[in-house]
Design brief:
Largest sheet: 7 strands, mixed
Number of strands: 25
CATH architecture of the largest domain: 3-Layer(aba) Sandwich
Strand content: 15-25%
Radius of gyration: 23 Å
Shape: globular
CATH topology of the largest domain: Aldehyde Dehydrogenase, Chain A, domain 1
Number of domains: 2
Strand order of the largest sheet: 15-18-19-14-13-21-22
Length: 477
């Protein structure tokens, strides 16, 4: 079987590899992908550093053309790439298609951003002096991405890094190397100069750690767990480097008495359980006022009964498998914790057998939870949600904000008064009204507060805040 190698200094290198296994069928080997070493990281960062002077001064039309070609090829190959994504991550095929299209949109957007780079010319406080304020590329950027969005998240980090003239060392999650390899291959063939983009696949304890320890990285953008994010931060402070963190969430969805019940149920089911609940923006706390509580619980339980958990590639599948055995064990452990804490298991929580061996878990719904239980405070990252009963809107808002996280929040209501108040007072970076908490457009900022995020926002024109550095220049007349 072909080994998909690492990409360093414009060359495919590496012979040590591991199997990429599908969570929908553990007998299916998707491919063999390289396992990088600390030496590979050193070489990749050196190549990126050597390529930076030329690339950072490259013409904007060159960058525009490369990113646009990348977007076009992703669209042209969307069926192939979507199938790869679904097979290696476990996301259903329709969800995978949506993610692939989003990746293309991101590359297309940042192709445009290369032509929209601006600065300011301002008068000086002193006579006969001109002042220019401009943005310049930061330098060599380390990119570390998670497994749950294996093509979209790399796209929204790599595209702005390249658009603004940085060079890149990219480490994808070890569970999903296939999409990462495909994206790098596409970008390479689109015409990138050697060393501008480098791919080092492998374990975080080896590849990621070597990146953190290297002083030649000017910045690191990381999406993943809160614990790892803290290690990224500490290592970055040690080297005085810029860092950007997107981490966990324990996102609330509030359902008020005046909500449209059908809409609230559809929104909650999508937010909590689609993509197997493996989204940092998933709503795992459903905060429901007492007037609608019983009807909501009954309707959501009936909805869950209609959802089909099966192979991600199979037509009619609503929810695919959990990504791997380790994550499945974590989910099962939290289900047991919820029972022990006194929450009532209203639906699901069972392991499922399907035609192919995989990590299949029923969507799990707890009722009679409190906001102090571990299942209400700690990120589970699976198809597990808890319903918390509250008296009214004021208590719902208080409970929603009572969390160490602050990524996304939602509310289901027909009241303009409550919708407006919630948008202004929710302690989250993103707020949804009568919409799922997961799902953000590609051209607007993504990020949260508290333990969910640190540093400038991702996506859209706001990405420039991380990937560039400001310069103020004075000229005497």
């Amino acid at each position: 079987m072909m080994i998909h190698q690492n990409f360093i200094a414009g060359e495919w290198v590496g012979t040590e590899a591991s199997k990429n296994i599908s969570p929908s069928n553990t007998n299916h080997v998707i491919g063999m992908y390289a396992q990088g070493s600390a030496k590979d990281v050193t070489n990749a960062i050196a190549a990126a550093k050597a390529a930076f002077p030329a690339w950072s001064r490259s013409g904007i039309l060159e960058r525009n053309a490369i990113l646009r070609k990348t977007a076009d090829e992703i669209v042209a190959r969307k069926e192939e790439l979507s199938a790869l994504l679904a097979r290696e991550e476990g996301k259903t095929l329709p969800e995978a298609v949506g993610e692939v299209i989003r990746a293309a949109q991101i590359f297309d957007f940042f192709a445009g951003e290369t032509l929209r780079l601006t600065g300011d010319a301002v008068p000086s406080a002193r006579p006969n002096i001109g002042v220019e304020v401009t943005r310049e590329p930061l330098g060599v950027i380390g990119i570390i991405t998670p497994w749950n969005f294996p093509i979209a998240i790399p796209a929204w980090k790599i595209a702005p890094a390249l658009a603004y003239g940085n060079t890149v060392v990219f480490k994808p999650a070890d569970l999903v190397p296939g999409c990462a390899w495909a994206i790098v291959d596409i970008l390479n063939r689109a015409g990138l100069q050697k060393g501008v983009l480098n791919l080092v696949m492998g374990r975080g304890s080896v590849v990621g750690q070597a990146m953190l320890e290297n002083p030649d990285l000017a910045g690191i953008t990381f999406t993943g767990s809160t614990g790892t994010g803290k290690r990224v931060a500490l290592a970055s402070v040690e080297h005085n480097r810029k860092f950007q963190l997107e981490m966990g969430g324990k996102n609330p969805m509030v359902v008020l008495d005046d909500a449209d019940l059908d809409l609230a149920v559809e929104t909650a089911a999508n937010s909590s359980f689609f993509s197997t609940g493996q989204r940092c923006t998933a709503s795992s706390r459903l905060i429901v006022t007492e007037g609608i509580h019983d009807r909501f619980v009954a309707a959501l339980t009936e909805k869950l009964k209609t959802l089909n958990v099966d192979n991600a590639m199979k037509a009619g599948t609503h929810i695919g498998p959990v990504v791997d055995e380790k994550q499945l064990k974590t989910n099962i452990d939290y289900i047991e914790i919820g029972k022990q804490e006194g929450a009532q298991l209203a639906f699901g929580g069972e392991l499922l057998k399907r035609d192919t061996p995989g990590f299949y878990l029923q969507p799990t719904l707890f009722t009679e939870a409190t906001n102090q239980m571990r299942i209400s405070r700690e990120e589970i990252f699976g198809p597990v949600a808890s319903i918390i009963r509250v008296k009214n809107y004021d208590e719902a808002l208080e409970v929603a904000n009572d969390s160490p996280f602050g990524l996304s929040a939602g509310i289901a209501t027909t009241s303009l008064k409550y919708a407006t108040h919630f948008k202004r007072n929710s302690e989250a970076g993103m707020v949804m009204v009568n919409l799922p908490t997961a799902g953000v457009d590609f051209h607007v900022p993504f990020g949260g507060r508290k333990a969910s995020s640190f540093g400038p926002r991702e996506q859209g024109k706001y990405a420039a805040e991380f990937f560039t550095v400001m310069k103020t220049s004075y000229t005497a007349a």
